[in-house]
Amino acid sequence: MSWADDYVDHLIDGYWGDRPNPRKQQNTKSKQMTLKLQKGDLVRKKYGTKVIEVTEEYGSHFYGRYVHSGASSGRLHVSVVVLVEDQETETKGYDKMKGKLYQTKDGRFGIGLAVNSQGEYVLEMKGTGDLERFKKSELDVVMPFTFSVQFNGVGTEYSYLGKAGTVAVGDLLLKTDGTKGITIAKVTAVNTKSEKATKYFDGVKIKTEALDNE
Questions:
Q1: What is residue 99's predicted lDDT score, i.e. its pLDDT?
Q2: How, if at all, do strands 146-151 and 181-190 pair?
């Protein structure tokens, strides 16, 4: 595990989000001290999102490791963390952001790191390495062109990779399959940015011409 991963884990967890209110801390101090941790417990910092597994506990202090990166959390006091009751819920923001490329409305690019406790997307910006946070509406995920089709015009929609400008909504595509014979698909949507698209459509576009019935 690189020092960069360790640094990002600490920086995101320790900085992003609302800062603690001293008055609230004073009012809840006695309650915070009642948290008893055991080896294997899952926690997160109160103002962070990254899940930490407790590896050693010493009364009111403990050592842990970040579940996703394996980096050490260092020595922490129990008053700065809360127990994670649903790991899947706590980590879904990290999973959906990690490693994806995003473009801001002003044309800059950044790599997704996590979703902070305020629901903001945290990016490592290309070119500068700075960490910045954005609302989801302020970003577009950078993905290859994708489109969806329905076979025989009904039922489930399927997503495919493609090249922008080659298909439009309503186009008919011909797919040849060795086991199913010839199948016709209708394009139902374009530029869908679907993560379900993993392959290109193996077929051709049908060019139609109206029949002259006179």
A1: 75
A2: antiparallel
Q: Which residue from 165, 116, 146 is spatially nearest to 8, judged by alpha carbons? A: 116
CATH class of the domain defined by 91-141:
mainly beta
Please list the ranges in the chain whose pLDDT falls under 50.
1-3, 15-33, 86-90
User: What does the domain layout of the chain look like in residue ranges?
Assistant: 3-89, 91-141, 146-206
Amino acid 50: pLDDT: 81
Task: Output the CA–CA distances (angstroms, integers) from residue 31 to 24, 80, 115, 141, 185, in the order listed.
Answer: 11, 12, 28, 42, 61
Among residues 156, 211, 206, 151, the alpha carbon closest in space to that of 184 is found at 151
Q: Was domain 3-89 assigned CATH 1.10.390.10?
A: no
Residue type for position 52: I
Kindly report, residue by residue over 56-67, the tens digit of the pLDDT.
988 889 999 887
Question: What would the pLDDT profile of 102-129 be if each residue is shown by its tens digit?
Answer: 999 999 999 888 777 677 888 889 989 8
CA distances from 100 to 18, 69, 113, 126 (A): 25, 17, 8, 12
